[in-house]
Specification:
25% of the residues lie in helices and 26% in strands. With 194 residues, the chain is an alpha+beta fold. It starts with a helix and ends with a strand.
Amino acid sequence: PTTYAQASKYEHWRQAMSAEYQALQSTGTWTLVPSSPNQNIVGCKWVFRIKRKPDGTIDRYKARLVAKGFHQQEGVDFQETFSPVAKPVTIRILLTLAVHHNWFLNQLDISNAFLHGNLKEAVFMQQPPGFIAPSQSSFVCKLTKSLYGLKQAPRAWYDKLFHALSSLGSANSQSDSSLFVQTQPSLVIVLVYV
């Protein structure tokens, strides 16, 4: 489906949207506040994907709430943007070193990564289609956490990750901001990519 109206006709998509909405609520992604004329209200939409197993069978139905970041205004509801992208040369060097030294490699996918970033700016968004609070239908969502689609979402997530890795003793590389190295108590290398 490409719209909420299409997806809402099917139980599996309704369940997927409900699960995403509950995840957003449990992380405190927003609070409902009265709307005012001086707020830049960002729209939102549901994006739907079918996740498949390696054999091609359906694993699950995934619904994601995405902010319409193209409604944002620089200086009003975002200041800086940044997306951590590992440099190809860094990846090649890291893999070469891992093979040469017989290092253990592991890959980790952080579920709903962007939802962990804290927003510094005041961002206001429409309530999600299908999940409008009946007693507060004229209210808007004041975002406290980053959301997919926001211009500053990658930066907010990276800032949170940077502080967490730094507090654990990892140092950020000067040549590639996506590379973190920790030498004590043992060598740990973390490469961040989105």
